[in-house]
Design a protein that fits this description.
homodimer, mainly alpha, Arc Repressor Mutant, subunit A, 2 domains, 9 helices, elongated, disordered C terminus, DNA-binding
Amino acid sequence: MSASTSAERGAEVRRRLLVAAAELIPEVGWHAVSTRAVAERAGVGAGLVHYHFRSVQSLLRHAVVEVMTQLLAEFPRVLSTDTSEDVVVREMLAALDDYSGTDATSLLFMEAYLASARDEQLRAELSHLLDDFRSALTAWLAARGTRAPAETAAVLAAAVDGVMLHRALHPGLTATAVAPVLRRLVSHSTEREQG
Amino acid sequence: MSASTSAERGAEVRRRLLVAAAELIPEVGWHAVSTRAVAERAGVGAGLVHYHFRSVQSLLRHAVVEVMTQLLAEFPRVLSTDTSEDVVVREMLAALDDYSGTDATSLLFMEAYLASARDEQLRAELSHLLDDFRSALTAWLAARGTRAPAETAAVLAAAVDGVMLHRALHPGLTATAVAPVLRRLVSHSTEREQG
DNA sequence: GCTCACCTTGGGCGTCTGCCCAACACTATA
DNA sequence: TATAGTGTTGGGCAGACGCCCAAGGTGAGC
């Protein structure tokens, strides 16, 4: 079949390995993901992992960066200068409703943050990823006249991840509960503010 | 020596195992902590781990709960009804300055949060721990007249952990940078607020 | 037909893992 | 002095680990 060259099938297997790895990281934890488990889930021989990737660590790094890039890329499109604060806050809360703190995506993010503490290359890639995300948020806040937009954006992004982090241990931390509080952050832009 | 009975020395070894485990968790990651590594750092034979603890998981659980209990217990004492908001925010920021996101304590907390997703007993214990912490914060906020004190306390606690989480990837996220933003959360208690 | 490059397999290597256990040291009681 | 209870050691077991590699399969270009 000319539609499926050897190289193309190779790329497909590589993709399946990345998907399998991204699934296993939240399930068993970063350090507990093994070459054999990834290969089994991807439906390929165990040796293939080290054909397509230099090491397990490299596979996990690629997998996590790929997933996070896709997810974070979806958000900035909602941020245009004429987007109301309600829409933005609602969007972030919708994200919070999707991610309970014990779901695969939340855990994948946390595992990635944690792994980046022991993997300099991963830290650099995630750092760049979050920079882009914060930049979009900062620009939107600045256009709205919010004080200290960069710092507010940073705290807002951190708060969302923090809520995600705490949520598994505090089910009452629902989106509707935190909405008014978070809105306080983006609303009172013209208030006095002591340095 | 009567000052050191067999039982007392046993308790001391058990304590050393807990300390060694609490050190190793941030260093190598939860799943990568092994009985032999803990025993070596504690300066005892490898078999002792399973004498004092049912399993490695049990050891890690005890270690992490002990450390977190001690650290969280220090905070509520600063919260009395006559404590000014400045002092409280300054106290939380001091905590942020101590914990850079890549230090042992920050990593230990994150590892614990993550591990609790796969360990029901640990989740219950951490949940209880954070409940107490939030209760103290809620009571203080309520006494100050802050709107939605429970929700604000939850978001505040989550924001601190979130900032810690992001900090390793964003060195500019200093305490002085986020201070005015966080203060916004506790300050404007009498503003209009849409539910 | 052949070569060549790429992909894939399954097994093997040495190392590490959690957990177990027989043997031993020590103290307190009888 | 004998006995019992507690703490401790180091080795052993079966299994899993990361990584490697010889061998084989399969299409593209000559």
